[in-house]
Structures are given as C-alpha cells and as structure tokens.
C-alpha cells in the first residue's frame, strides 16, 4: 500500500542528480561528455560527437547481446539466443541510419572539425573492435553447434523446413554480417562525401583502403554456402 504522504517527486535512489531519473541514468555525467559550446571549434562538433558517442553505445549493447547469445548457443539454448541476435541486428541498423545525420555537415565546414581530431580514427573504435572479436566468437560457436548436430551448412538450408530453429539462427547470423557490410558501405559514402576518396584519414590511411574493406565478410562461410547451394542445385538438376 502506498503512503499518501509520500512525495513522488523526491529522489529515493542514491547518487548525484536532482531526480531519480537523473540519478538512475546518470544524465549529468552523460551530458557532460560532449564539448560545451564555448570549447567547440565549430557548431557541428555536437552533431559529430553525438553520432559517434551514440554509435559506441549501440555497439556496446549489440556486442553484449552477441556475447550472451554465444554463451547460450554453447549450451544448445538456441531460442533465447535468437532473441538476443535480433536485438543486435537492430542495433547495427540504428547506427547505420544515424549516419544520415553526418550528411548534414558541409564538407568545407567539416575541415574545421577534422583538424581537432588529432590521430583519432575509427580503427580505434572500441565498439567495432568488440564487433570483430565477438563475431569471431559466435562464428566458432555456430560451427561447433553444427558439428554437434552432425550438419553441414548446406544441409541446414536444404532441409530448412524441418530444421526451422537452426535455419533461423543461420539467417540471423547472415543478417548480422549483412548489416555490418551495409554499415561499412554507408560509412564509406559518408567519408567520400566529407573528405573525398582520393585522400587520407586522420591516421594517414588512404580512403581507398575503406573501399577494399567492403569486400570483407566477418562470417564468410554463410556467404560461401550460397555459392555451394547454387552448385548443388545445378548438379542435381543436371543429374535429373
Ligand atoms: C564525417 C564522418 C566520418 C569521417 C570523415 C570518417 C572517416 C574515416 C576514415 C578516413 C577512416 C579510415 C581510417 C582513418 O584514417 O581514420 C575511418 C574508419 C573508420 N570509421 Fe569513420 N568516419 C566518419 C564517421 C564515423 C562514424 C560515425 C563511425 C561510428 C563509430 C565511424 C567508425 C569508423 C570505423 C569503425 C572505421 C574502421 C574501418 C572499418 O571497420 O570499416 N566513422 N573513418
């Protein structure tokens, strides 16, 4: 029963902040993480920091979900892993769509921001480093799972209807890899728009290197399986 004299506006949680909302979410600290207006070399620095910082947060959530999904798969708990993978895929979609915001920066004005980034480069993004690490982990876990089930990836697709759960897992992992690929492509076009393609980044990397990365897949077996399915289908058809 609630006490009628209770002041629901008064904070009850421990910590700094005027309200429980601010205490729980630690908004004072969060909102102090962007340069104050007086320290910005250009108005758009807030936009630039917001997109990057929120990307790191979504990647933190995505990789935490993927890590847990890998642990669940290691214990053959496929259904709860599927739920977490769906979330991770959505995180990757969010960070891709928020790249649109960077298209609102003028390429000439961006030059002022570029020079205050030091040697700061996306290659050192903690979120993306985790993406690579945790994707390798879940790939290995998936391989083990198929081995325990005595299945080849191609069997899983050919018998998709009877292996619904594993089929969904394979498709969600493909979604994850596809979303990384799409992010990379979109990031490449953002970079080209901001600084062009025949130039170098803040760590001296030619932008063309980013173009080459577009050909990379984190989960190549899932893509190779498609090629094999074409071959198998054609061989079966030719064999009558
Ligand atoms: C105007 C905006 C941006 C520009 C001009 C830009 C530029 C670049 C450049 C030139 C590189 C190559 C490495 C270097 O020399 O720095 C790079 C790599 C990278 N950037 Fe950005 N970037 C932008 C926005 C972002 C955002 C919002 C993220 C999100 C976290 C991000 C994440 C990365 C990552 C992860 C790499 C490593 C390459 C990869 O894995 O594909 N960048 N960026």
Give a topology summary:
Elements: H1 20-25, H2 27-31, H3 45-74, H4 78-97, H5 107-114, H6 126-149, H7 153-158, H8 164-195, H9 207-213, H10 220-238
Bound molecules: protoporphyrin IX containing FE (HEM).
Summarize the structure.
By secondary structure, the protein is mainly alpha-helical.
CATH topology: Methane Monooxygenase Hydroxylase, Chain G, domain 1
CATH class label = Mainly Alpha
Number of domains: 1
Radius of gyration: 23 Å
**Secondary structure tally: strands:** 0
Strand content: under 5%
How would you classify the helix and strand content by structural class?
A: mainly alpha
- Give the helix proportion (percent range): 55-70%
Task: Please describe the biggest sheet, giving its number of strands, its sense, and whether it closes into a barrel.
Answer: none
- SSE arrangement, N to C: HHHHHHHHHH
Principal-axis shape = flat
- Unreliably modeled segments: none
Q: What would CATH call the architecture?
A: Up-down Bundle
User: Which kinds of small molecule does this entry bind, naming each only once?
Assistant: protoporphyrin IX containing FE
N-to-C terminal Cα separation, in Å? 75 Å
Q: What is the number of helical segments per DSSP (H or I, 4+ residues)? A: 10
Average of per-residue pLDDT values: 95
